[in-house]
Amino acid sequence: MLSNCNYNKTKLLYKISKIAAFIEKNAIRDAEKDNHPLCAEEYKELKNDLERHLEKLRMAVEGLSRESKFE
Q: Could you read off the pLDDT of 10-24 as tens digits, one per residue?
């Protein structure tokens, strides 16, 4: 059974990755198609920020796993 903190990391990884994928596949393209360049730029910035946080969470989970502390 995962501790609450490790469960939260895992759940956040999943949910944030879904949001980042939605932004990549839909939001940016739709904003560009509708000629909303400021929205497209905001979505790109948001996606980049989310990916940066995803990487930090992934590294935390990976590090705990290597140390056999991901419980």
A: 899 999 999 999 999
Q: What is the CB neighbour count within 10 angstroms for residue 57?
A: 16
Give the pLDDT confidence of 4-53 residue by residue, as tens digits.
888 898 899 999 999 999 999 999 999 999 999 999 999 999 999 999 99
Longest dimension (CA), the chain: 50
pTM score: 0.82
Decide if 59 is inside a domain.
yes
Two tokens at 67?
């140390």
Q: Range of 45's domain?
A: 14-63
Q: How many domains does the chain have?
A: 1
Burial class of 18 by CB neighbour count within 10 A (0 to 12, 13 to 18, 19+): exposed
Are 16 and 57 contacting, i.e. CB atoms less than 8 angstroms apart?
Answer: yes
